Amino acid sequence: MGVRTGRGGARLAGVVVAAGAAVALVGGCSVGVPDPAAPSIPPVTSGPGTPTITPGHDADAVASRDMPFSAGATLAHGVPVGLSEDLAEAPQWKQVVGNAGGASRYQKSDGCQAAAEVRHNQWPLVAADDRESTAALFAYLDPTILPAYLKPASLRWGGERDKPGPAVDVLVLERAAKPAGQKAGRATAVLARVFGTAGSSVYVSVSCPTAAALAAARADIAQWLTVVPPG
């Protein structure tokens, strides 16, 4: 749920659910990604309007090749990134919440639960490059998450699901399920990417009863869930 301050300025908005030193998934609930309020965007000055698409920007060319962290600046400024809802079509998966405020939730027959969110106006998170900005997102959600805890991963970057296509770099935080006999816990993984130039972030979280189920769910997400390049 977003929170705004008064004349003192805008505060980053989002709901953080923490478990130990990690971002936890509680009952499959979606974890909010910060969505800064409008006043955080630089004010519009008088004069000719700024075009939506950067002059000379070739959106089709950007969408047709991989999107590593180093390529984030090739996106047009302020043009949002999206997320597909194709995980709902994967075997054993069903969608339980469809694109409510930019967030969708899914359940799998083996007990896995996933949430996928896209947020815009992420300018306060933007650092030197997209990798640092993504680490800043994890730190915003839980200050105990250090960059060393984050591992590289990838998701689909547009393309057709049944054909090889370009990939987009993300960072992932993974936590193993607690051993039997301890307080109940689930194996969890959180994948995220901040696109600094576009001002967008994508955030995918998944929790499963076992590590094996989590690995299978991660494979499903990699195959079916697509980050949609800006048009």
Description:
The chain has 231 residues and is an alpha+beta fold. The chain contains 3 helices and 11 strands. It has helices spanning 59-63, 130-141, 211-224, and strands at residues 18-19, 22-23, 82-83, 93-100, 103-108, 113-119, 151-157, 167-175, 187-195, 200-208, 226-228. The strands form 2 sheets. The protein has a 9-stranded mixed β-sheet with strand order 3-11-7-8-9-10-6-5-4. The chain has a two-stranded antiparallel sheet with strand order 1-2. Residues 1-32 and 36-53 have low confidence and may be disordered.
Which properties best describe this structure?
two-stranded antiparallel sheet, about 15% helix, nine-stranded mixed beta sheet, alpha+beta
Write the layout of secondary structure elements.
Elements: E1 18-19, E2 22-23, H1 59-63, E3 82-83, E4 93-100, E5 103-108, E6 113-119, H2 130-141, E7 151-157, E8 167-175, E9 187-195, E10 200-208, H3 211-224, E11 226-228
Parallel strand pairs: 7-11
Antiparallel strand pairs: 1-2, 3-11, 4-5, 5-6, 6-10, 7-8, 8-9, 9-10
Count every helix, treating DSSP H or I runs of 4 or more residues as helices: 3
Low-confidence stretches: 1-32, 36-53
Order of helices and strands: EEHEEEEHEEEEHE
Mind summarizing the main beta sheet?
Answer: 9 strands, mixed
Q: Any idea what the shape is?
A: globular
Q: How does the helix and strand content classify structurally?
A: alpha+beta
Strand element count: 11
Rg (CA only): 18 Å
Give the CA-CA distance, first to last residue: 28 Å
- The side-by-side strand order for the widest beta sheet comes to 3-11-7-8-9-10-6-5-4
Summed over residues and divided by their number, the pLDDT gives a mean of: 79
User: Helical content, roughly?
Assistant: 10-25%
